């Protein structure tokens, strides 16, 4: 979801293109320990909350697709996507 709403593909980060596997390993290890990308400050709170929930460290705590779909529908109905607030910082 982060990639969809930011338009940034995390797999194509500049530092990953150097061919240095240790950089990728460090990134993966940090994510396994709970590190996450900074969420854009312009995002509406419900969107930031949904992305954070999808990134929960415990997979059992992550929302299922039906919940994700409903939350996105609720945000769309509230007009949160009409003003471009989900775009990049």
UniProtKB/TrEMBL annotation:
Lineage: Eukaryota, Viridiplantae, Chlorophyta, core chlorophytes, Chlorophyceae
Gene3D superfamilies found in the cross-reference section: Transferase(Phosphotransferase) domain 1
A Pfam match: PK_Tyr_Ser-Thr
InterPro entries: Kinase-like_dom_sf, Ser-Thr/Tyr_kinase_cat_dom
SUPFAM superfamilies, A to Z: Protein kinase-like (PK-like)
Highest rank taxon of the organism: Eukaryota
Species the sequence originates in: Haematococcus lacustris
Residue span, Serine-threonine/tyrosine-protein kinase catalytic domain: 24-72
Name of the protein in question: Serine-threonine/tyrosine-protein kinase catalytic domain-containing protein
MF term (GO), any: protein kinase activity
């Amino acid at each position: 979801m982060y990639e969809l709403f930011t338009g940034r593909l995390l797999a194509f980060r500049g530092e990953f293109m150097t061919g240095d596997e240790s950089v990728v390993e460090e990134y993966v290890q940090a994510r396994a320990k709970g590190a996450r990308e900074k969420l854009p400050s312009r995002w509406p709170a419900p969107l930031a909350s949904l992305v954070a929930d999808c990134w929960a460290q415990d997979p059992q705590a992550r929302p299922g697709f039906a919940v994700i779909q409903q939350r996105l529908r609720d945000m769309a109905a509230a007009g949160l996507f009409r003003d471009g607030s989900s775009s990049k910082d």
